[in-house]
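Hi, here's the filled form for the chain we discussed.

Project: internal
Contact: R.S.
Residues: 191
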Amino acid sequence: MTVIARPVRHIGLATVLVLVVGAVIGGVSLASYREAGDTLRVLTARATGTVTGASAGAAVVTWAGRSLTVAMSGGVPPVGTRTQIAYDPADPSVAIIPGAALLTSADRSRDGVLFAAFLLVLVLLVDGWLLASRRWAARRPGHELVVRRISVRRGLMARTWLETEDSRWIPVYFDRAVVTLPAPTSVLAHG
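And the returned structure, exactly as it came back:
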């Protein structure tokens, strides 16, 4: 069991780090999504209005004798453009039009939640595959290979490989025993 303890620890620590970061991203995105959703949920009334002005990333919209400034995330529609309006029938001062900053915020927040969920599921699937395949390979009968250690350095990064007699390179996790391998040496390989 000590043979696979170091790689399993490495996978476990990397997974915990990714899960924590993914949970933080997902949590912040979910909180933002709920906040935007609470505002959007009350916008049940619909109307058609006209853009009558623009000011610093906001559109001034007029409909049914009301005038309202709506924050926009992208470009502001040209003056005179007819547009759909969603507003709160109990409080018409809360309204949005297509391209409103509130809609963009809700979309980004939803995408953040979906990204975090996808990331977490993907990492767990890959880790499950790594652990299952390595366990399966360790249970297979071993066979002798003659190998020599190769260390590839590029800047501050170093990677260790074992090269077989037929010039295949097998990547290995760092272990002090690998550094002291005589070249060539015979090892027991599984899988």
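Let me know if anything looks off before we file it.
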